[in-house]
Input
Amino acid sequence: MDFVANIRGVVGVGDTISFWQDPWLLSGALKDHYPALYSIEKKKSATVQQRLQNLNNSRTPKWQWNKNTLTLEETSLSDQLSYLITRYDFIIGPDRWQWLGNNDLTFSTSSVRKILDVSRYTDLNLEK
Output
């Protein structure tokens, strides 16, 4: 079972969620969706707060690349990622984590058990 696939960071302040390494904007970590950008990131452990700035009531990236000039592909990817960030619904207040393993998004041991059971049967190639 991939526990991380069932959680997502919900960004408020942005000081406890890793921009690249935690799932928050897309399903999975941004480093997996944008490996070309992650490879040129100066501070791979940067938080969302460290990587975004507030401009005109909107959060926009403040990139810190380990090179001065980006390729056309890198520029295109950073533009794409910047657009996704502008569409994200930031919350007011502290960051929090959301459990995706249950329809009502609340964590319970029974929801984890269901995921474990499905995972076990899938691994064994059996149908429940």
The CA atoms of residues 5 and 28 lie 6 Å apart. The helical segments are 30-33, 35-40, 48-51, 72-87, 109-123. The chain has a mean pLDDT of 87. Residues 72-87 form the longest helix (16 residues).
